[in-house]
Each structure stands twice: as structure tokens, then as C-alpha cells.
User: Fold this.
Amino acid sequence: MSEKQNTSSENESIPSEKWFASWFDTPYYHILYSDRNYKEAQLFMDNLTHYLNMPEKSKVLDLACGKGRHSIYLNQLGYDVLGIDLSENSINVAKINENESLHFQVHDMREPYADKYDAIFNLFTSFGYFENEVDNLKTLITIKESLSEYGFGVIDFMNVNNVLANLVPEEIKTVGDIDFHIKRYLKEGHIYKEIDFEDKGEVFHFTEKVRAFTLIDFENLMEEAGIYLLDTFGDYKLKKFHKTESERLIMIFK
Assistant:
């Protein structure tokens, strides 16, 4: 679960609406999640673009792209890709890979885009971080209004029912010389992950927080946004979604 808030090493509070822009901008976020499966991500993109029957040079918008792993591979498949993220540090890293048909920029997914896209992807549970529920609806409306006439939107989210059934309350994850002490819990409709560790004599604490949206929650939001949900899948091989057994909730809409 890549899902994301932060207080600094000096425990200074930051505005709650800005937490998702802070944790991602630290090197520790990328250290903690350095074991992500890139082959699995590429398989997902292969399956997804085949399912959507996307012609070469289709315009793709990758929302919350991070350092651009999905964007880069989509571009290698022949698509014209724009990756956007709030993290300036991540975008600076991603920009190293730019070319004539691959670009990255710092942008808030709630804000409108200048162009229309044949596909808009929001991947790896990069939705549901906003404190204000209205912002989640605003994001969906922005996606809808940014799709071309025949474009498709895709949200790849965790399957909350499966996550909660298999939640590990506490664990220690060691990456290099850092022991990440992790606590997970459900509170007020959000899944929290408290992350504590020490590095170079400093003590750090971060809190990831994501809205525990179920399929029904998304269906209600999409109906309000005027979006038509076409299909749902439960994993990166695009097997059908099962309410309790599936690891992912992948939604195709327009």
C-alpha cells in the first residue's frame, strides 16, 4: 500500500491538506518502497493497454506518476505521455527521462488540464488522500472533463475489504541500515500507516492516510460526477473483481 501524511523530524505540524505533498518529497518514501515490482507494473500496462485497444501515439495522462515508472514504460509502448505529480523532487527525477513524446510536470490532479487525453491513469492507490471529501469528487470530474470523446479513465485502488481482512497491525521493515517501525489501523473511514525510524542520529515520524473507499463508495462518487463505470478487475492480470478475495480494485470508466 503506497498510501500517504507527515510531521517533520522536529515534529513540527504541517497543514493537513498538504501532507500528501510532503512525505512523497522525502528520500525515505522511496527507500521504504524500493522493493516495488517493476515487472508486475509493466505486465499491468501491457494488459491494460491491450484491453483498452489503445492505438499507437494515443495521448495518455498519468496522474500521481511519482518518478514516472508507469509513464516511462507507457512511452516505450509507443504512447504520447504526460506524467503529473505534486512532488517536485519526484518530477525532477522523472524529467531525466523526457523526450518528444514523454513529459513530466508538477500539477495538482484536482486542477484542470489544457489538453484532452485518450486515456487517464491513476495507478497504485494514488486517490483518496484529500482531507476534504469534495476534492475527491472534484478530481473525478476533472478526469471526466479531460478525456477525449472516445477516451477511458482508469483508477487502480487497493481492495479495502481484502486489505482490512489481512491488515498487519505492527511490523518492522528493514531496508539497508534503516529499521522502519510500521503500525496500521482503521480510523474514521481512513486506513492509517504510522512510520517511525531513525537515520543519521535523527528521529523521524510519518503518517500515511488514505480514504477506505470500497467499490460502492466509488460507484456513488462516479454517479455524482456523471461518470459511467464500464468494468472492474481484481488484479494486474485483469481477473474479475471479487469483493473479498481480490487484491486490487481496478475500475475502467468514461
Remarks:
- The helical segments are 19-22, 27-32, 38-52, 69-76, 88-94, 133-146, 160-165, 215-225.
- The radius of gyration is 18 Å.
- DSSP finds eight helices and twelve strands in the chain.
